[in-house]
Fold these 3 entries.
Entry 1:
Amino acid sequence: MNWKKTRSIGKELRKKKSQGILNLYSKGESCPTIASAYGTTQATINRIIKENGGKLRTISDSVMGIAKGRKRSIENNKRIVESRKKNGWFKNPERTKEKISKSHKGKHYSPKTEWKKRHKMVRTKKHNRKIGLANLRRKEKFGYINSPETRRKMRVARAKVKYPKVDTSIEVKIQNFLKELGIEFFTHQYMKIDLAYQCDIFIPSMNLIIEADGDYWHGNLDKYGSWLNLNKQQRIQKIRDFERTAQLEGKGYTVIRLWEHEIRSMRTKQFKKILYQNLNKEERVNNFMELLKDLEVKIG
C-alpha cells in the first residue's frame, strides 16, 4: 500500500475518533467515562476537546447540572440558596471553629507534642549567642569544638558524598570536551591531601586534575582588578585554591585551573591545545635544561 494513502486513512480515522469524542462530550458524558470507552487517558480526551475548540467543563458545572444540559430556574436557585443557609453549607469560619473544637474535645496529643504547643521554640540572637559561647568554652577547656576523632569520622563520611549534587554548566562543558576527545575521566574525585576535597575532574591516565573556577566564587583578579576588591569569602577561597594546587603538584599531579569566562568562549580545539601544553610543560623544561648544558659544554 502507498504510504501517502495509509497516511490519509490514518488522518480520517483520527478525525472520526475526535468527532465521536466531541459528540459524547456535548451529550454530557464526563471525560473519565469517554476515556474508558475509548481505552485512552483522560489527558488525551482533554487535549482532543481543546484542539477542536471545545470548552472543558468545571466540577461546579457538573454539580449544577449543566453537564446534562439541564438549566435551573431563578426560583429554584433561590430555594437552594435558602436551604444551604439554614443547613450551614456556606462558608462560616466561626461555626466551623465551633464544630472542630467540639470534635476535638477529650482528645489528647503526646506529652511531648503538648509541651511543644505550649512552648514555641524561637531561635533568637540570645539563643545563638549562648550556643556560640558554649562552643568557645568547649574550645578553651579541651582545645577543640569537635574532637579529632569526630573530625576524622566527618571527613570519611564527607568523602563519600558528592558535593555539589549538580555539576555547574562550565564543568559540564569541560566534560563534553573530554568525551569528544575520547579521554576517560572521573568527576568529584576525593583527593587525600591536607586540605582534602573533591576535585572537579580527574583524568587518571594523565594524572591530571582540571578545576573549573567560577569568576565570582574563586575571585578572578582579571575581573576584580585587585586583591583589595575581593570579599572575605573570595580571599579565603583563593588561598585554599593556591594551597590545594601546591599540595597536589607536590604529590605529582598536574593541575589545570580554567576560569569561567575562558571556558564559556572556549572550543574543543582550544581546550585540546591547553590540555597538551600543560601536559608537555615538564618535557619542555627538561629539554631546555639539556640545551643549556650543551651550550655550556660548547662555550667551555
Entry 2:
Amino acid sequence: MASSRFILLAQCCTRSSSVAVKRPLVAASASHPHTIRSFSTGGAEDYIVKSAESIEPFQKSNYTENLLIDSHHWSHRVALECTLTKKATTYGRLRDQVARWGGYLRKLGLGKGDVVAIVGPNVNETSPVVLGAGAIGVVMAAINPTYTPAEIADQLSDSNAKLVVAFSPLEPVIRAALTICKVDIPIVGMGVPADTGIPMVSDIFDDDRIPFADAIDVSGSDPLSILYSSGTTGKPKGVVISHEAASINLAMLLHPSTLFPGLLDREGPQNNFLMLLPMFHVGGLFGVHAISIHKGVRLVNYAKFDPKSFLRVLEDYQISVLHLVPSLLNFLVSSPQCDAKVLQYVKSILCGSAPMSNSGLTKLKEKVGRPIMFQQAYGMTETMFVTMDPINEEKVGWCGKLMPGVQAKVVDVSDPSKNLPPNIDGELIIKTKSQMSGYLNNAEATAQAIDADGWLHTGDVGHYDQEGYFKIVDRTKDLIKVKGFQVSPSEIEEVLLQVPGIQDVSVTGVPHDRLGEAPRAYIVAKAPPSKKSIEEFLSSRLSENKQLVGGIVFVDALPRNSTGKVVKKQLQQMKPRGD
C-alpha cells in the first residue's frame, strides 16, 4: 500500500486553561488515557487496542469553516509570514483572502467537486488558496514542486485538474507538463511576480471586483484534498481526504491529552511555528498548518532549506515550535553554529520520518540548556495522525499511544485474521474516522488497503506493550524514505530498465546522514553502462529525491526467493562484480 509515514517528536508549545469558543472536544479522563481492550479468548476482538478518549465532531461539516471558526478572536494577529517574500498576512486579511479566492474560482465556473492543483513551496498564498477552495467545495490536489514535467503531468491527468496554481518560477515546468498530458487549463502564479503575464494570486486577493464567497455546506464524505503518496507498485497514488476526515484529525490534535495548552491562551504571547514541512505533505497540511491556523499561531513559511538561513530564521523569527526530519535534527546537533542562543525561543521540537535516538536527543537537550518538550507520534498519508505521546509522558524510540477515537491491532503477517498480543511483531492495522476515503481512480488498490470491516492495512511491522505504547520496527513494503518523503523503488526500477544494457535491477534504501535514506541500485548487465550515463539518464526523467545518491552497484545476479521475488534484505550483503 502506498503511504507517506511520519514518526514525529514533539507537538505544540505553551499552555492555558482557557477554552476556545465552540471548541468541540471533550475533556480527557482522569484515568490512564489509553487502554488495551481484550475480549474472550479466541473471540474476533481479542487484542484490539482502543483509545479510552473520544472526540465530538465539529458543528460544521466544512473543514475550512472548522479551521477558521475562532479566527475572529485574533484578527489583528499575524497569521502568515514568508521568509522568501518578507510579507506578512493577518488573520483578518487571511479570512478575506479565503473568501476572495473562493469568489475567483466561482468566477471561473468552478464549484463543488472540481479539482484545482497547487504546485509550489511554502509561501503565504498557499494557505488561503487551499482554504478558499475547500470553502466552496473545490478539491485541492497538492503536487510536489520538485517533480519533473512528466511526473506532474501524470498527477494533473489523474486528478483531472481544471486549474493550476504554481510558484511563478515553475511556469515553464507546468507548461511542459500540460503539453505532455495534452490539456489546456489556466495557470495562476504565486510567491514572486511573474513576467509572462499570467494572473497572480496576490492580485486576485486585491481585486475588489471579485465578490467574496461564503463557505458552503458539504457532506462530511465530500472530498477536500488529494495528496499523492508513493507506492511500491509504480506511480504515486492519489490519497483522497474528506472534509470529515480532516476535521476529525484536527479535533484529535486539539484534544487536551495531546495539545500543549498554551495554544489556547488568546491573551498570552503568540507562538511562532516554522512551516518547513511542505503543504503537499500530510504532516504539513493537516499537522503544522492545521494546528497553527486554528489556534492563532504565527506560521512562518520557509520555502527551502539552507543551513545558514535556517539558523538565522530560528532566531530572527523567534521560532517556538520546530517540525523537522531526522537529517535536520542531526544538523542541529552537529552544527557548531547552532547553540543555545539560536535555540533560545524553541519550546518544542518535532522530528518527522523516524524517531530520534537517545544519544541525539541527549545532545540536543544539552545544546538547548533548559527543559524542552518532546513527544513522539506516528501516522501516514492514508490515516493522518494515529499515535502520539500524551502530555508529560515520554518514551523515546516508541511512537506514543493511540490518538482519541483510534482503534488498532497487530496481526500475523502470514495470517491477517490472527490478532497478536502485546510485544509480538506483526502488521499494524488501523481504524479511524480520519483515514482516507480511498485511492483516486484505483478501486483495486483501495480494496487491498481497506478491508470489508473498514480496517486499513498500514504495511508497517511493529508491536505494542502492556501500557498501550506502539513501536514500528520495520515495514512490509520497501518504500525508501528520502528527506521524510516516500520514494517508490519500483518507479526507479522501471526507468532504469529502459537503459540499454541493463538486464535486471533492484532498488533499495540505504542509510544516509543527510537524507535519512537514499536510493541505491543493484544492477545486472553483461556489458555495464557507465555509472555517469545511468545517472544522467535518470536525472532527466525523475525528480531529485529519486536519484541514486546511495550509489550504483553492479552484481552478477539478484537474490530471489522460490517465487522469483527479489530478497531485498540480502542486497546490501552482496559483493560487487569483480570486473
Entry 3:
Amino acid sequence: MGDSTIQPGYGQSAARFAAEAAARQAAEAAKLEAAKQAALQRQAQTAKGQPLVRDTFEAPRTRGGVNLSGGNAPSTTGFARWEGGNGSSGIPATGPLTVPQAQAEVKRLLSSTTLDDVTHDDLMSIQAVLGRVPADQVNSVVAGLSDAELKQWVEDLNDPGLAGGGPFRGLSTEERGELFTFLADNLEPTQAGRVFTALDSPEQMVEFGESFIQRGDVHDRLGFLMAVGETSFPDSERAASGQVIASAMDALTSDPGRLAIGVRALSEQNLQDGLLKAAGPAWNGMGPQGGQLQYTDLGRLQRITGAVASTEDHQARAAMFDGMGFVLGDMVRGQHAVQDKEAVADQVSGMMTNLLSDDLGRVLTHLSGAQGYDPTGSSFTTYAREQMLDEGGALSDLAGQMGELNLHSPGPNGRYDTAFVAGYFAGSVIRAADSLTAAELLGPDKAFALELAKLVVSFRTDPATGTLLSGAMSAAEQASVEKALSEGAGSVRNAVLDLLGMELSPGNDNGTPLGAFEQGLFAVYGAALYDP
C-alpha cells in the first residue's frame, strides 16, 4: 500500500514524496512515546497531591455549538476540575461561568513569565473553565482571545516539557483529542478557522479540522471554507490544509450550491491543494524507477468536480477548471513517474470537460481577462493539449459551440467581449497545437482543427473597409489546415491565422470584432503573437 501523505512542495519533483514515508515512520514512533507518557501521567496526582475531581453535572452532548437542552447548562461533562494552576483564581469554585469570567480566567492561565510558565495544570484548567460555560457561549470566549493568545495556547498544547515531561509539559494525545472534540462541537466556523490556522502541527491541523468537518452540518462546512479560504499557509502546512479543505468540499457535494460558494471563497493556492489532496496522492515505493506517484481516490475528485459542474455557478466552475488545470499539468503530466499516467490524465481531462459542459462561453468569461482565474490561458491550453492527445476529444464540439455565440455584436458597454473570449479560446487551442510534434498531431481527429479554422475565418475582415467578409473556407484553405497538422511545430498556428487575410498588428483595439478577437489571442500569446 502507498503512503497517503505527501510533501508540500507540489510543483517539485515527485521524488520528494518518497521522503514523506520516512517522516511518517518517525512521527508514528513519536506518537507511541506520547501514548506511553500519557499512560504514566494518568497515574499521577495533581500538584496539590489530590486525585482528580470530575464535574458531577451531566450535560447532554452538543452539536454545532448549540446545547440541545437549552438554559445555562455547562457545555461538557468530560473535563476535570483542576486546582492550582497559574496563580490564584477569582472565579467561583463551582457552577456555570459567564463569558467575561471565563475569558478573564483563560487569559490569566495563559499569562506566563520567565519564572512562571504555562503548566500542564494550566492547560487542563483552561479546559475545565470552558466546560463550565454554557455551550452556546463557548464561541464567544474563544472569540475574545487575541491572535497572540490563541497562538500561545495551541503552542503550549505541544510543549514537550523538561526531558519529555514535568509540570510544564503540554497535553497528551488523549487529552488533546478530548479538547479538539469539545471545540469542534462548540465553535462556530469563524472561530474554528482561527484555531485551525493557529495550529502549527500538520497532524493536529488534520485532527482538529477533520473533526470539525465531520461533526458539523453544511452551514459549518461552508463557513469553515470561507473562514480559511484566503489564508496563506506555509509550505510545511499545505498538505494538511489541503487535506481538510478536500474533506470539506467532499462533505458539501450533497449541497452543490453551497459547495460552489465555498469554491469561490478559496484562494487559488488553497483550491489547488484541496483538489490535489482530494485525488488521494500517495507514493508507491515499490513501483519501477524507484517508485511512482499514484492517485488512489480519483472517484472522490470526480464527485467534487461533478457537483460543481451540476450548478449554474459559472464562476465556481471556472475556478475549479483552473485548479484542475494545475492537477493535470503539474501533478500528472508534469511528474516523471505516475502510475497509469495516461489513464489518470484522461480521467482528469474528462472532469474538466464536464465543468465546461454546454456553457463554454460563460465559463470562459470568468477564466479570461485581467481579472479572470486563468488570464493567460495556461489551464485551458493544458486542457486543449490533453484533448488533442485524445484524438481531438471535445475540442471540435467546443469550437462549434463557440462559433454559435454572437461574436460580432457589441455588448451593453460597447465592447466586443464575446469576440475577445473567442480569441482567448482560439489562442489556447493553437498554442496547445504548437507544443505537439507532427507525429502527435497525426493522432487527433482533424475535425477540431477545421472547426477552429471556421471560428477564425468568421473574423475575416476587409482591411480597406473593416467590414466582415464571408466566413466560408475554400477547399484550398481547408487543405492548408490539414497539411499543417502533418507538420507540427507552429504550422497549425500559421495556417489558421493566415485565414484572417490580414496581418495582425499591436495597433488593433477592441473597437471592432477583429480587434477584440486579436486581443484575446494576445492574452494567451503575448508579444510572441507577432513573431514571424
